[in-house]
Amino acid sequence: VKVKIPFGNKYLDAIFSVPEKKSRYGVILTHGAGGDMNFPHLVSLAAYLASHGVLCLRFTCKGLNIAYRTKAFKTVVEYVKLSEDYKLLGVFLAGRSMGSRAAASVIRHLSQEDDDDFIQGLVCLSYPLHRPKLQSKLRDEDLLFIRCPVLFLSGSADEMCEKQLLEGVASKMKAPKKIYWIDKANHGMAVKGRTTDDVMEEINAQVFSWLRENIELEHK
Length: 220
Fold this sequence. Notes:
The protein is built from 6 helices and 8 strands, in the order E-E-E-H-E-H-E-H-E-H-E-H-E-H. The protein is of the alpha/beta class and 220 residues long. An 8-stranded mixed β-sheet has the order 1-2-4-3-5-6-7-8, sandwiched between helices. Helix 4 (141-145) links the parallel strand 6 and strand 7 (150-155). Helix 1 (40-51) packs across helix 6 (196-214) and helix 2 crosses helix 3 (98-113).
C-alpha cells in the first residue's frame, strides 16, 4: 500500500507491506545515504517480514544531513502511531547504514521526551560506526543512551564498522543487544561467492527471529 506522509511542506514516499493477518507490531525501515526505499535489501526484508506476519513500512528520505533524516524518521513514527488503518501496539525502528543512525537518534530523542512503550527496539543493518579508515571518531553517542533492545547486523569485513570497535561499543551499552556478523560481508553486505539473495535470506531470517524473541508473535 503506497502512502504519502506529510513532512513540513512536502511529503515522504512510503510503502506498507501488509501481512494477511492483522499485525500487532510493525517495523519502520529506511535506507542509507544513497538510494531510496526501493533499495533491494529493504524490499527483500519488508516482503519477508510481511509474509511472516509483521507489518512493515519503508520510506524514502533523501538528504545527507543526519538531523534532517532523524526529523523525518520521527514524523513517520508519529504517523504510524496515529494510524487508524493499522492500530499497532508497538514498532521496531530499522535502518540501513545512515538510516540506522537516524533510527538510533530518533529513539534517543523520543526516550527523553516520553516514556510510552511504542518503540520496542532497534535494528541496525550495516551501522556506520566510523568513516572508512577513520576509526578514531566513533558515531556511538546515541547508542549509549538507548535502553530498548538493539540488533546489529554487520559484515565482518565492513570498512565502516570494525568488528572489535562495535563489540567495544556494545559492551558499554545499557540496552539488551545482539550482534550478528555476516561472514566476510562488506558495508554493502556483498560477500564474494554468495548471491545477494542468499545473503539477504540469512539477514531476513536473523531479523525475524530476533523480533520474535522480543515480541511473542502469533505464529502462523
